[in-house]
Amino acid sequence: MKARVALLIMAVLLLAGACTGNNSPAQTAGLQGEALADSSAEPLAYGSMPERVSVRVGFKIPESRLSGSDTNDNNPISRYLDQLTNIQVVHAWEAKGDDAFEQKISFAIASNDMPDAMVVDRVQLRRLIDNDMIQDLTGTYAAYSSKLVRDIYASSGGKALEEASRNGKLYGLPNVAIEMDAVTLLWVRQDWLDRLGLEPPKTLRDIGEIARAFVERDPDGDGKANTVGIAGDKIVVFGQKPNPSGFDSIFQAFHAFPKNWTQDADGNVVYGSITPESKAALGQLAAWYKQGLIDKQFVLYKESEEPIVNGRAGMFFGPWWMPYWPLSEAVAQDTKAEWRAYAAPMDAKGEYVTHTAPVTDRYLVVRKGYEHPEAVVKLLNVFTRLERRLDPNIQETQWLDEYASQSGVQLRHYYPFDLLLDYSDAVDKRYDNLQGVLEGRLDPSTLDPDSYQLYEMTEAEHQNPKKNLDAWKPAAAYEYGVGVIRKTPMIKVNSVFYGSTPTMGAKWAALEQLENETYLKIIVGDQSLDSFDEFVKQWRMQGGDEITKEIAKRVAEQ
């Protein structure tokens, strides 16, 4: 599921669907006209390499299938990028699925047999820098990066590039986190809520009562006891970036932040998974599970979204983009299903609590010794411009849109690197632009391409509800997901540390396994709630205290 979720997150945030062309009115007026003029004036960023160059990359095989003679490294999008840059992208190796791909990357680093460029996580970046295995990209980035890429990095206040640097040298081209993604909402079958005459949820008690009604009162009206109150995922807590069916919101209502390093009232660094507040949240989840309010089968599902898609679940937790997936599949099977999002549960004071996301967590790096690092930057420039719908080659991009629409292939899955860039406040800005047009304060022709596309889809959905799910997805996500977040005052808690320490490198995997198993066993009743105290004791003895000291020292040095 993780691989699919990662792909969906990118697809959602970037809103570059295939149902509209690149030649929207926004491309010939207002902001977009200026952007096109700027991009055409950047020959170093977008110009073709003077001589033929090849770049060897590691490639994650997508779920979508190509047709005919097209292959993962020879297809419409790869040929288009080659045409623009004179750079041949060669797949040094391919792997399908997150786990297999991560194993390939880990082996490439361990054996010092890296492709010319690849995307790594924070811990891997640190290791590569420590072992002098990747190039200093400071000068290459300064000379060859596009204004668009620089502006996107600037939207993080310079923090994204800072996290990819050491001692003033840039060692990776980072992704940029979307601020809106850190928030988890409660998604509810509104048609069931209305049929049973129930009020929308606000508190933990409300959620429990609604879940009981969804289990016991036949909300779908089929005369069978086949519905579940709350769907869940055996991962339990996602921590930094929520995904469907995690229980992060329950913990946050108790002011608990598992898998995050925060500071307590006295300024001490604490690991959120071992606090009394986390124990209290686990007690609530265990009680709900025992009462049958949480799906009794959630641990057994291969894909946690199964009860959501098949119409059995009445509630689940997830970020704003849930209409893109899994709700699009649920609505495709039952167009009468009405899902709405709520900022629930509130804490004991009636406030909504959430955590923030890391500024960045993935980095495009270049193998030390590769002769053309500028080729990597150029490729990033070109497919970022295409993804942001700023490519001035209207005829070619129209053809790519039509190909994607007819074939069902997501073009972004075949970019050379899985590093899609967008502004940190992109979702907020598109929401504001959409509201401005709908309220008559903005002319649609002045919108940037992404906002204009969102406006087109929203209008299509309003005119013909659920007739085109490609329009329903963004319309519902922004109206019901983003809209709720924007209208809800929130207490945002920041993590003080991301990354790794020397002791974490040796002991963190075992500590994580201990944590994950304990949390799950307490919820399903295989261990008592009091076993949490023994878990905390073991966590601290098996390296947790040592790691906490290392992190506290780093935080103090910041």
TrEMBL record:
<protein>
    <submittedName>
        <fullName>Putative aldouronate transport system substrate-binding protein</fullName>
    </submittedName>
</protein>
<dbReference type="InterPro" id="IPR050490">
    <property type="entry name" value="Bact_solute-bd_prot1"/>
</dbReference>
<keyword id="KW-0732">Signal</keyword>
<feature type="signal peptide">
    <location>
        <begin position="1"/>
        <end position="18"/>
    </location>
</feature>
